[in-house]
Amino acid sequence: MDCCQWEGITCDAVGRVTHLHLSSKGLKLKGGIFSSSSLSNLTHLTHLNLSRNSLHGSLDQAGFFLSLGRLEVLDLSFNLLSGELPGSLSSSNNIRRLDLSNNRFHGAIPSSFFQQAKNLSRFNVTNNHFTGYIPSPICVKSSSLIRLLDFSYNNFGGNLPRRLGNCSKLEVFHAGYNNLSGSLPEDIYDATSLKEIAIPANSFHGGISNRIVNLTNLTILDLYLNHFSGLLPIDIGKLSKLKVLLLHSNNLEGSLPPSLLNCSNLMELNLGFNLLDGDISAYNFSRLGQLHKLDFISNQFTGEEIPDGDHMADFDGFQNLRILALRGCELTRSDTYMVVYAQEARDLGYVT
Q1: Is 329 exposed, middle or buried (0-12, 13-18, 19+ CB in 10 A)?
Q2: What is the pTM of this model?
Q3: How far apart are CA 37 and CA 332, in angstroms?
Q4: Which of 4, 165, 194, 266 could form a disulfide with 190 if both were Cys (CB 3.0 to 4.6 A apart)?
């Protein structure tokens, strides 16, 4: 029987298997333990997707990558795989995309991993049990091809890696829910292709430099539940593509920079649980017409009362608003509970 006709298998012109896509097939393999024996002869394999199955075992023990020198794309996400990241994986110069997310891998990522995997563009190990430091540096040269790095939901410690500014093509950097600390490295503001920075629920401290406005492609900036302090960047309004700004549960202080109202694409703005102050009734929030959620809860803002109920629908800047949280500020009526109605759809939201 010609296996090239089977579902999920692609072959080249001479019948050699190049793509194996067996995602969500309920695979458990013999004995429920991952073994490379059934794949070791597929020496021309370039794409392997075994995601969303029930695969057990350790890739390192299986010597999985020794015979797969042409492998470019590997997706083993959403399995039950364990053990350490095999050193042989990075020895292949062809690997471009690696997704090991949502498994049970542990141990440290070898410090030389990213230098050896020179063609790597996407690296995702979120929701595992990795420890140690995030390898540094990740990008030795500005010609690095890396576009996505996701280290979230592990047990990484220490500082963010050095030379992130050399990652000239990096668009997504996620490292939330770890044990990371220190301040934001200055050269992160040189990675001007960044669209998303998400490093919540760590122990970062220090200020947010005004140099962040160099990252003009940012759409998501998520720094919540850390120990950032100081003022909001005065020129933050230059981040005109920003859609989500989550800075709640830090130690930020001072008043809102007027330029914030230039972020006209903002859909979610959460500055709750900080030490921010000033009269927010002086700000023309009609310029943030895309806002769905505005959360200033537990700050030291002052100001006049805001409209409630049906009157909110006609309040400039709140036509799209679904959630408005002002409880714990020093605003008139900020301790009351009200309902926001959208101007057209009349969908319910909440004001607290």
Answers
A1: buried
A2: 0.91
A3: 70
A4: 165
